[in-house]
Amino acid sequence: MKKKAGIALGVLTAGALALTGCAPDGGGSGGGTDTEFAIAYNADGGHAAWVDAVVNSVAGTLDITAIGEPYPDFAGLREEVTDRVIESAFRTGWQADYPGLYNFLGPLYATGAGSNDGDYSNPEFDDLIAAGAAETDLDAANELYQQAQEVLLADLPVIPLWYSNVVGGYSENVDNVEFDWHSVAVFDQITKADGSVVTANGSEPQNPLIPTNTNEVGGGKILDAIFAGLVKYDTDGSAVNDVAESITVDSPTQLTVKLRQGLTFSNGEEVTSDNFIKAWNYGALASNQQLSSYFFEDIEGYNAEEDSELTGLVEVDPYTFTITLNKPAADFAQRLGYSAYFPLPDVAFDDMAAFGENPIGNGPYKLAAEGAWQHDVQIDLSVNEAYDGPRTPQNSGLQIVFYADQVGAYNDLLANQLDVLDAIPDSAFGTYEEELGDRAVNQPAAIFQSFTIPERLEHFEGEEGILRRQAISMAIDRQQITDVIFQGTRTPASDFTSPVIDGWTDSLEGAEVLEYNPERAAELWAEANEISPWE
Amino acid sequence: MGSYILRRVLQVIPVFFGATLLIYFMVFAMPGDPIAALFGDRVPNPALLEALRAQYHLDEPFVVQYFYYIMGVFQLDFGTSFSGQPVIEVLQRTFPVTLRLAVMAIALSFLLAIVIGLFSAIFKGKLFDQVSLIVSLIFVSVPVFVICFLAQYTFGVQLGWFSPTVGADNGWLGLTLPAITLGVGIYATSMRLTRSSTIETLGQDWVRTAYSKGLSRGRVVPVHVLRNSLIPMVTDTATTFGILMVGATVTEGIFNVPGVGNTLYQAILRHEAPTVVSFVTVFVIAYVFVNLLVDLLYGLLDPRIRYVK
C-alpha cells in the first residue's frame, strides 16, 4: 500500500501539515500483515478530521483495520487517481455547474465518462441516463434519472457521505441577503442602508477573467456579476430567461434561441446572436486551450484534438440562432446559465489577454474603472446602467475582497467591515450561530461528497465487492459525523445528487444502504468473507 | 575595502545559480501534476492537458525546463504564473508591502529591545528586569498565530481600533496592527541579547574609568555603553530582517496582507515553478546583501574591525 516515493512523501506531508497547522495524522502506519482499508485524501483540504471519523466508524463496526491516508496536496492525489495507480479508496466530490440531476450522474458514472474515477460500468445505468438525456419533458427525464440512481444505490460505485452546506452570514449593514443554489449570495437584491457598495468575500481569480477559461469559484463569482447569460438561475435552481427572450427545445438535439432586442454590453455594443456564436467558438477551439472547453463538446462540430468550427451554431437573424447537438441532451437549455456560455463583445477578440484583465460584460455590474481588479487584493464593481433584466441591482455596487484565510474574513464580518461571507471558517462552526444570530446562514448546497472504492482493488470486484461496499456504507454513522465533526454544516446524503437540485428526492428505493446499521453491516461483511476472506 | 565589497557582490553569482537550480528541482520533484489539478475533480480532455503542459514546458525534462527559465531570466523575463501574470509584476506588487511590514516590525522590535534591554541590564536582578524577563518569555513561547488571532479579535473585532484585516489598505498606517504583532513576537530575542551584552560592557574597565572621570550616567550609558553593546544586536536584527523579507507567511495570512509570504505559499500549493523560483531567488539575493550591509556596519560600530583584503 505504500508508494515508492514514500520518503519524499513523508517529508512533504510533514511540511504541508506544519504550514496549514493541521494536527498530524496516523496515516503513515502500515507494517502489519492484516489487510487494511484505507481512504486517501489531500491534506491541504481540511479533510483529516472527517476521514478519521469515517475510518474509525468503519473499523469499529466491521472489526477491521481502517486508516486515513494523507497526500500532501491535491495535485499529488489527483495524479494517482487519474493514472489509476492508487491502491486504496479515495475521497471524491462534485459541485454542480448547473442545477440539473444529469450533471451529477452522467459525467461521473456513465461508462467511460471523463470523471468516472472508479471506472464504474453498468449498461442498465447507461441506458437510463441516455434515455433521460433524450427526454425533453423535464419531469419525465428526472424520473429516469431517479431510476438510474436506484441502480447506483445497488452497486455503490462511490459511497455517498453528505451534501456540503453553504455556511455564511452577513453584516448588520445589509438586508435582503439570500444564498442561491450555487452557494453564492444573490448580490443584486442586497440592500445597504447607507448606500455604500456591498462588500463580499472572494478569492484571487486563478485565470484571466474570460468566461470560457474560468473554472473556479474566485473568478466565477466575478464573471457571474459582470456578465449575463441566456438564462439565470433562481435561488431554487430553476432557469429563468435573462438575455434570452425564449429558448425552444425543438428536439433532443436541436434548440432555437431568441434574444431580447436592444440589450447592450457596458461599452454600448449591442448583444446579438453573433456575440454568443463567436464566444462559444472561441471557447471550444482546441488551440485556445480554454479550461472550460468541455462545455461545448455536445455541440455539433466540436473537436477536442484539433481546431474545428462549431457547425451546430447557426445564426438565423441578429436576434435568433439555432443550436444543433451531436447527441441528445434535453437538459442543454438548463445548462445555458453557466459562465462558459456567456457572450463576448467584439473588442474581446482583438486582444483576449487585455480583455481578461479589464473585461467588458453585459451583466448587472461592470468593472468600476480600468484596473479595478487589484490582484490579490480586491475587485471593485459598479452598477452597469446598461443592464436590463431580472437581476437589476438594488445597491450601488459590489466590492469583492480576496481573502487568503477565512478566519480574517470572518473577523471582518464580525466587525461589520465585510457585508457578506459565504464561507464561515471551520474554527467558527461552534460559535457563528450565536455570534451572528439571525444573520447566520446554513443551508444545503449543490455539493456532493463521497469516497470511491475502485472495482479493481482486491476484494472489491463482483459480488464480493458489492457486499463489502454496502457493509462499509452502512458502517458509517453519517448523522453523528455531520453533527460532531461538522457541527451540522453538512447534511447526510440520501442519494448521489443534492437537495437543491430540481427533481431531488430522499425516498429512492434502496436508499437504506446509506443509513447507519451496524448489525446489517457486520452481516454483509461476513457474507463477503465467505466468498473470499478479508486478510 | 572596495575590493572586499566587490568580492562579496561577486559571490551572489554562484549563490544565484545554486539557489535557482535547487529550488527549481524541489518544485519539479513535488508529486502530482499541477495542470491536471487546475481542473479540480474533473478529468480534462487529454489533448487539452498536453497543450497546457507544453505551454509551460512541463512536458520537457528537468534540465530543459530549467534552461528555459534561466534563459528567460537573462532577458529579464521571469516567466508567467498560471493565471497569466508576469512573475515580475507579482514581485513588484507584493514585495513593497512585505518590505513595509518588515521595516515597521523591525523598527518596533529594535526600539523595544534597546530600551527594555538597556534598563534590564542597568537594573539587573531588580523588579523591572524580572518582569521584562517574564513578559519576553511569554512572547517567545506563545505561537505567532495565537498572538495574531488574539490581536485581531481584541483590537479588530472587540475594540474596533483597527480593521481586522489589511487588504487594499496596505500603506504604512494600514499595516500597523500586523506590524505591532510581528514586532512584539520577535523583540524578545533581541532584548535578551542587548541585556547580556550591556551587562558585559558595564563591567569593562573603561566604563569604570568614565564614571570615575565624573561623567554622569546619562552620558556614559548612551555614548560609551550602548554603542559597544550594539554589535550582537545588529547581527540579530539583520538576520531577523532577512527572515521577515521572505514574508511572515502566517501573519500575512491571518491579517490578509497581500505580501510575498501569502503569494509564495499559494504558488507552492499550485506548483508554479516560475513564481516560486523567482521569489526565492530574490529572497536569497536580498539576504546576501543584507548580510553584506551588516558586515560593513560592524566597521562603523567598532573601528577595530576592518576588511583590508
TrEMBL record, chain A:
GO terms for molecular function: peptide transmembrane transporter activity. Transmembrane segments: none annotated. InterPro entries: SBP_5, SBP_5_dom. Pfam families: SBP_bac_5. SUPFAM superfamilies: Periplasmic binding protein-like II. Keywords: Signal. Residues 240-529 form the Solute-binding protein family domain. Residues 1-23 form the signal peptide. PANTHER family: ABC TRANSPORTER SUBSTRATE-BINDING PROTEIN, PERIPLASMIC BINDING COMPONENT OF ABC TRANSPORTER. This is Solute-binding protein family 5 domain-containing protein. It comes from Arenivirga flava.
UniProtKB/TrEMBL annotation, chain B:
Residues 95-298 form the ABC transmembrane type-1 domain. It comes from Arenivirga flava. The chain crosses the membrane at residues 12-30, 99-119, 131-152, 172-189, 237-255, 275-301. Keywords: Cell membrane, Membrane, Transmembrane, Transmembrane helix, Transport. Belongs to the binding-protein-dependent transport system permease family. InterPro entries: BPD_transp_1_N, MetI-like, MetI-like_sf. GO terms for biological process: transmembrane transport. It comes from the Bacteria. The keyword Transmembrane helix applies. SUPFAM superfamilies: MetI-like. It is a multi-pass membrane protein. PANTHER family: DIPEPTIDE TRANSPORT SYSTEM PERMEASE PROTEIN DPPB-RELATED, DIPEPTIDE-TRANSPORT INTEGRAL MEMBRANE PROTEIN ABC TRANSPORTER DPPB-RELATED. This is ABC transporter permease. Its main location: membrane. It is found in: Cell membrane. GO terms for cellular component: plasma membrane.
